[in-house]
């Protein structure tokens, strides 16, 4: 491919990028067939195209996935006035004419010419006719995005597309007012938040320190640097006047970088020196004079902490000699912490402020994050644009509480956290590289644990719900394992289900369903994620559990665990409060109501149920003195004890969180039910047996051994295993 001499891509270095065939071959593939290497090749080329300088890096990343490459000759009509569009276009090189039909109906009237960097065709968002005819006026290279993909692109990048779309309806003179109302409207673009709240948030404003107190190491480094500057280049620290305002004892950012580079041969670039100064700034050892800027290699004023007021105190000769001897070690220390400080500085920028270089630095870091190892290159690049840095200074702080709304997914960048389950205490500790919170986001369920910081100065990468749903919901791992005390206690698989939309149609939606686990953990999972929570029509998981629990969980075990949860005492040091206590008590009661609703005639077959209900009833009567809300809940338990299926309290409650009225009630499995099954030996011989559901494994082994003629001298000679295979 040869670049035209008249192309607006002015720089000869750009010619090399555009001329390379490999990236256009990648664009010729269907988006689903493009590999991570393909996307990297396309991105590396597009970000160098001068015509796309005004395109935000996140938008360029999306174009790598959704666009196709077109190379057209002069005189080709892309579309005509009145056509229903199928594509959106962005010009790489060359020009196109924008025309409308002439008033006399013969020929076209030229409105204007669009060149490299122009993007047009947004009418496909609204399925409205084209407002103009587009004809290539020279050989043209452009990117084409199909309608279905552009709608996705638009939803993900509204604020970035606003600055690059050329609205043809605004260029043409004869516009249908009704159509204009549905055309591209800049006022619909969401405004990026730049409120004072964000400016005052240290985790979102890289100009502020992220720790309440400067560490001893950084404090010492700042003392050594300040002393050496005053001893070797004291003119760098002085009062400066800017915009009629005097700033005391400050330095200029670019001069600070120059000074650092001249002190040591191990500094290879100005950006390296910037990172070292940023390491001081993020701990408050230095600051911008008005705390408006993170450290920049520019004519901006910074000062050392403590120099704001009073006369500038200079080091003594002895102090200066000691500091000069320590300078090499200080520089070495800062070169080690500088890169991490630069990364944190970039992550603390608002997403729309991150440059292409910023996104590359974040992406390179994400390649080494354990929690993201299963994700594709494209997903990691998208995450680079939305990840939010979050820092918490003190151990013991509660990040979120069990039962709360699921708003974000977290990855631990530094430090560790405790995972607390109500009634159990600390069940797991997550460390650097671990993640938590995605199961509840995918399932749209409340938090099932409380997370407490286990160390001071803990750092997280955070993905908020909207971005998680857009980027990660459908690409997350197919299997999730929940651990407690270092052991797997719950295994969930991602399963597609059909969810009814507002317009009455159905769309595929992914959700994690329990595949296996310990019986108590399954009970806790359903209690937390299915009780007093609205969930999707067609999700029968809870009914399935309540219909089959007799196979793997004796009724006395269920009753004991429910009573244990109900009677659990809150531990304030673990973030448990009075609201959580009431919430758990109500959930236990509502779980019993659900259990009763599913089983009805079989509910009282085991006499242990009556004892359990009486014990619970007495506990509720006592708790009513503290929690007045339980006065309504006790009526439900009393109605169940009376086995009054038509009791007004039962009818009134009707499980308001359930959305499954059209689903037939499942058939309950009783312990006395017989089941026919086969038991195999390793040599594929087998015997067919008929036994009750509640038959213990030891009895099955004994009977099967007798029927198969196997010797069983010792209890552990024979093992009964379940074999799962597709």
TrEMBL record:
Pfam families: cNMP_binding, DEP, RasGEF_N. InterPro entries: cNMP-bd_dom (IPR000595), cNMP-bd_dom_sf (IPR018490), DEP_dom (IPR000591), RA_dom (IPR000159), Ras-like_Gua-exchang_fac_N (IPR000651), Ras_GEF_dom_sf (IPR023578), RmlC-like_jellyroll (IPR014710), Ubiquitin-like_domsf (IPR029071). Keywords: Guanine-nucleotide releasing factor. Residues 231-306 form the DEP domain. Residues 673-726 form the Ras-associating domain. Residues 510-645 form the N-terminal Ras-GEF domain. It comes from the Eukaryota. Residues 42-153, 371-472 form the Cyclic nucleotide-binding domain. One of its GO terms (molecular function) is guanyl-nucleotide exchange factor activity. GO terms for biological process: intracellular signal transduction. Belongs to the RAPGEF2 family. PANTHER family: CYCLIC NUCLEOTIDE-BINDING DOMAIN CONTAINING PROTEIN (PTHR23011), CYCLIC NUCLEOTIDE-BINDING DOMAIN-CONTAINING PROTEIN (PTHR23011:SF41). This is Rap guanine nucleotide exchange factor 4.
């Amino acid at each position: 491919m040869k670049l035209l001499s008249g192309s607006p891509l002015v720089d000869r270095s750009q010619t090399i990028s555009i001329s390379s065939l490999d990236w256009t071959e990648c664009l010729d593939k269907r988006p689903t067939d493009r590999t991570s290497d393909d996307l990297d090749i396309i991105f590396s080329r597009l970000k160098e195209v001068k015509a796309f300088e005004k395109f935000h890096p996140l938008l360029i990343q999306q174009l790598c996935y959704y666009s196709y490459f077109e190379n057209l000759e002069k005189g080709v009509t892309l579309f005509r006035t009145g056509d229903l569009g199928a594509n959106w276009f962005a010009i790489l090189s060359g020009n196109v004419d924008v025309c409308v039909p002439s008033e006399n109906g013969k020929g076209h009237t030229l409105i204007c010419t669009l060149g490299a960097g122009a993007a047009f065709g947004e009418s496909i968002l609204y399925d409205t006719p084209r407002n103009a005819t587009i004809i290539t006026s020279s050989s043209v290279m452009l990117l084409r995005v199909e309608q279905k993909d552009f709608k996705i692109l638009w939803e993900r990048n509204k604020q970035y597309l606003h600055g690059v779309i050329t609205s043809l309806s605004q260029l043409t003179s004869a516009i249908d007012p009704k159509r204009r109302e549905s055309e591209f409207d800049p006022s619909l673009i969401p405004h990026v938040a730049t409120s004072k709240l964000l400016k005052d948030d240290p985790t979102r404003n890289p100009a502020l320190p992220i720790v309440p107190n400067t560490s001893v190491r950084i404090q010492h480094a700042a003392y050594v640097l300040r002393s050496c500057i005053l001893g070797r280049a004291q003119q760098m620290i002085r009062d400066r006047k800017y915009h009629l305002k005097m700033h005391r004892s400050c330095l200029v950012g670019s001069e600070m970088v120059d000074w650092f580079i001249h002190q040591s041969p191990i500094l290879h670039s100005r950006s390296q020196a910037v990172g070292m100064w940023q390491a001081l700034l993020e701990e408050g050892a230095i600051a911008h004079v008005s705390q408006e800027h993170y450290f920049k290699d520019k004519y901006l004023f910074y000062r050392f902490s403590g120099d704001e007021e009073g006369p500038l105190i200079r080091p003594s000769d002895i102090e200066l000699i000691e500091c000069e001897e320590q300078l090499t070690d200080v520089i070495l220390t800062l070169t080690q912490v500088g890169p991490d400080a630069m990364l944190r500085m970039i992550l603390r920028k608002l997403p729309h402020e991150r440059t292409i270089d910023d996104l590359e630095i974040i992406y390179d870091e994400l390649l080494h994050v354990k929690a993201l190892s299963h994700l594709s290159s494209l997903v990691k690049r998208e995450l680079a644009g939305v990840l939010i840095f979050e820092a918490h200074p003190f151990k013991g702080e509660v990040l979120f509480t069990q039962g709360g709304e699921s708003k974000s997914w977290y990855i631990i960048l530094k430090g560790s956290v405790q995972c607390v389950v109500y009634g159990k205490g600390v069940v797991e500790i997550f460390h650097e590289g671990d993640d938590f919170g995605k199961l509840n986001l995918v399932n749209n369920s409340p938090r099932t644990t409380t997370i407490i910081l286990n160390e001071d100065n803990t750092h997280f990468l955070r993905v908020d719900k909207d971005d998680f749903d857009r980027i990660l919901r459908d690409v997350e791992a197919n299997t999730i394992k929940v651990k407690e005390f270092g052991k797997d206690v719950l295994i969930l698989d991602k399963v597609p289900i059909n969810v009814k939309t507002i317009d009455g149609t159905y769309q595929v939606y992914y959700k994690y369903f329990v595949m296996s686990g310990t019986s108590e953990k399954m009970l806790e999972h359903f209690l937390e994620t299915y009780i007093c929570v609205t969930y999707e029509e067609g999700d029968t998981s809870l009914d399935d559990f309540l219909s089959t629990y007799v196979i793997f969980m004796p009724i006395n075990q269920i009753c004991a665990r429910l009573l244990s949860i109900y009677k659990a005492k809150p531990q304030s040091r673990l973030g448990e409060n009075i609201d959580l206590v009431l919430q758990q008590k109500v959930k236990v009661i509502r779980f019993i109501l659900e259990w009763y609703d599913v089983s009805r005639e079989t509910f009282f077959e085991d006499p242990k149920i009556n004892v359990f209900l009486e014990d619970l009833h007495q506990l509720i009567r006592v708790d009513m003195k503290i929690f007045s809300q339980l006065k309504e809940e006790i009526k439900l338990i009393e109605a169940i004890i009376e086995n009054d299926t038509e009791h007004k309290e039962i009818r009134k409650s009707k499980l308001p969180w359930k959305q499954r009225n059209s689903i037939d009630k499942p058939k309950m499995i009783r312990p006395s039910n017989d089941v026919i099954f086969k038991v195999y030996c390793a040599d594929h011989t087998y015997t067919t047996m008929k036994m009750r559901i509640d038959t213990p494994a030891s009895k099955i082994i004994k009977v099967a051994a007798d029927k198969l003629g196997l010797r069983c001298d010792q209890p552990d000679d024979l093992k009964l295993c379940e074999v799962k295979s597709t």
